[in-house]
Design a protein that fits this description.
Elements (H helix, E strand, L loop, with lengths): L10 E5 L3 H12 L3 E5 L5 H19 L10 E3 L3 H5 L4 E4 L5 H14 L6 E3 L6 H4 L9 E6 L8 E6 L5 H13 L3 E4 L9 H17 L5 H9 L2 H5 L4 H7 L5 H9 L17 H15 L4 H18 L9
Parallel strand pairs: 1-2, 1-4, 2-3, 4-5, 5-6, 7-8
Antiparallel strand pairs: 6-7
Helix pairs in contact: 1-2, 10-11, 11-12
C-alpha cells in the first residue's frame, strides 16, 4: 500500500496547537485542506480558533485556495481520533526531546502505516527523536518559520532510520501546499536558516555586551542595509554582485583575504580551492543564465519595491 499522492491529500492532522502548530493549522486551512487538530491543553480549541481568526485577514490578502474555510477545522478529543483518517501529520509539540520522542512514538502507533509524519522541531535531529518508534522510516523533520501561514520556508530532512521516499514525499507535499522547500541531504543541528540566524544573533549579543553597538544600531544595520537585499536575493548572490562583472570568482579573489580580519567572533573556514570553486559554481547555478546587468537591475528593482512597500519611499511604483 502506498501513501496518498502529495497532490491528492485532502485531510491533514496537526498535533500541538500552540503558536507554531496553530500557524500550520491556519496555513493548511487557507490552502483548502480539511484539518483535524489535537492538543492536550484544556483551552486549546478556544486559543486555536482565535489564532486562526486573527490570521485569516492576512491569509485573505495572500489569496485563499478554492474551498478554503476556517469551518473545515475539527478539534479531536484524542490523539488517536485526530490521526485516524489523516493523510499527513504535522507534529508541533513543545521543544523538549523526551516529549517529542514519546509523542512521535505514539503518533507512529496510531497513524495509518503509510502516512508520513513530520515534526516542526527547530533544532533536534530526527535521528534523536525516532529512536523508540516502531516504524521510524516515515518520520521526517518539516521545520517551518514563524508564522507558518506567512513565511514560506520549510526545511525537510530525515534521520538515520528515515526512508528517503518519506523525505521526498514530504518535500513534494509541502510544495503542493504552497511552501518553499529546502530538502537537506544530511542532518545538521539547527538546520540551515536557524544556524545563519544564530550566527548573526550571537555576534549582535557580543557587540551589545562589549558596548560596541546599541540594539537600535544593530537593527538599523540590517533593516536599512543588507536586509533590504536579503528579502529577495540571498547573501551568496548578493556578494556575487559585489564582484562586478567578474562575479563571485572576482569577489572571492579580491576580498577573500578579509576572512582573516577580526570582523566577527565566528572563525572563518580556510578559503581553499575546493571551497572557492563550490561557492562560484553555486552562484553560477543561482544566476541561472542571468547576466550581471540583469541581476543588478533585479536587485535594484527589489530594493526599491521593499523600500516603497515598507513606507520608506514615497511615490508610485514604476
Amino acid at each position: 500500500m502506498s501513501p496518498t499522492p502529495p497532490s491528492s491529500v485532502r485531510r491533514v492532522a496537526c498535533i500541538g496547537a500552540g503558536v507554531i502548530g496553530g500557524g500550520w493549522v491556519a496555513h493548511f486551512l487557507a490552502r483548502g485542506y480539511d484539518v483535524t487538530a489535537w492538543d492536550p491543553a484544556p483551552d486549546a480549541e478556544d486559543k486555536l480558533r482565535r489564532l486562526v481568526s486573527a490570521a485569516w485577514p492576512a491569509l485573505e490578502r495572500l489569496g485563499l485556495a478554492e474551498g478554503a474555510s476556517a469551518d473545515r477545522l475539527t478539534m479531536a478529543p484524542t490523539l488517536a481520533e485526530a490521526v485516524a483518517d489523516a493523510e499527513f501529520v504535522q507534529e508541533s509539540a513543545p521543544e523538549k526531546l523526551e516529549l517529542k520522542r514519546d509523542l512521535l512514538t505514539q503518533l507512529d502507533a496510531a497513524t495509518p502505516p503509510v502516512v508520513v509524519i513530520a515534526s516542526s522541531t527547530s533544532g533536534y535531529p530526527m535521528t534523536d527523536m525516532q529512536t523508540t518508534a516502531a516504524t521510524p522510516g516515515r518520520l521526517v523533520v518539516g521545520h517551518p518559520f514563524n508564522p507558518p501561514y506567512l513565511i514560506p520556508l520549510v526545511e525537510v530532512v530525515g534521520g538515520e532510520r528515515t526512508d528517503r521516499s518519506a523525505v521526498e514525499w514530504a518535500a513534494a507535499f509541502y510544495e503542493v501546499a504552497g511552501k518553499s522547500v529546502i530538502t537537506m541531504d544530511r542532518e545538521l543541528p539547527g538546520f540551515i536558516a536557524n544556524r545563519l540566524q544564530e550566527a548573526l544573533w550571537r555576534e549582535a549579543l557580543h557587540m551589545v555586551a562589549n558596548g560596541e553597538a546599541t540594539v537600535e544600531d544593530i537593527d538599523t544595520s540590517i533593516t536599512e542595509g543588507p536586509g533590504l537585499r536579503w528579502a529577495f536575493m540571498g547573501p551568496m548572490l548578493t556578494f556575487a554582485l559585489a564582484g562586478g562583472e567578474g562575479g563571485m570568482a572576482h569577489m572571492l579573489d579580491h576580498f577573500g583575504p578579509s576572512l582573516k580580519s577580526p570582523w566577527t567572533r565566528l572563525e572563518a573556514p580556510e578559503l581553499d580551492r575546493a571551497l572557492r570553486d563550490a561557492v562560484v559554481d553555486g552562484c553560477d547555478r543561482a544566476a541561472d543564465g542571468r547576466t550581471y546587468a540583469q541581476l543588478v537591475a533585479e536587485r535594484d528593482r527589489g530594493v526599491i519595491d521593499v523600500l516603497r512597500a515598507t513606507g520608506r519611499l514615497d511615490g508610485p511604483a514604476r
